[in-house]
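Open question from group meeting: does this chain pack into something compact, or does most of it stay loose? Before anyone orders reagents, we agreed to write out a predicted structure and look at it together. Recording both the input and the output here so the notebook holds the full record.
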Amino acid sequence: MDDSSIYQFSVKRLNGEEISLNEFKDKVLLIVNTASQCGFTPQLKELEALRNEFKGQNFEILAFPTNDFGAQEPLEGSAIGTFCTINFGAHFPVFNKIRVRGPYVHPLFKFLADKKLNGKLSSQPRWNFHKYLIDKAGHVAEFYYPFTRPTSSKVRKNIERLLAAD
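C-alpha cells returned:
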C-alpha cells in the first residue's frame, strides 16, 4: 500500500458502513469538509454542478460533514444526506460526521493537512468547505480555501489537468 495516497484510509458512510477509499482508485477527487449551517453551505449546489460538469470523466466529490467550526453541523447520520439532497440537489457521496482538526482529527484529514504525511502540502482546514484535490493515484495535488468557489476557473482547470494526466 502506498503510504502517500489516500487509499490507505477507510471512512464511514452515513449509514455507518465502513468503506475503503480504494473504491475511488483511478478517479480525480475533490474532498471537502462540509456543514449544513455554514455561510458557505450554498457551495453544495456548486459542488453538484462541478460534479455534473465532469460526469463520466472519472471525477467525484467526497463530502465530510464536521461540527468543528462554530458547531455548524447539528445534524446526524442520514439527516445530513437528506439535507444536502433536498436543499441543494447534491448526489455526491456524503460521509459520516468526522473531526477535521484538533486532537481527535480523523486520520484522513490528518494526512491531507500534513506535508510530512502526504508528501505534497500542509494546509489544515480553518473553516468549513476547505477543499483538497486528489489525483488519480490518490495523492494530494492541491488545496483551496473555503472562499474559493468550487466552480471557479482555477478549480476546474486543475481538475481538467489531472483528468488528462496518465
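Observations to bring back to the group:
The mean pLDDT is 96.
Residues 153-164 form the longest helix (12 residues).
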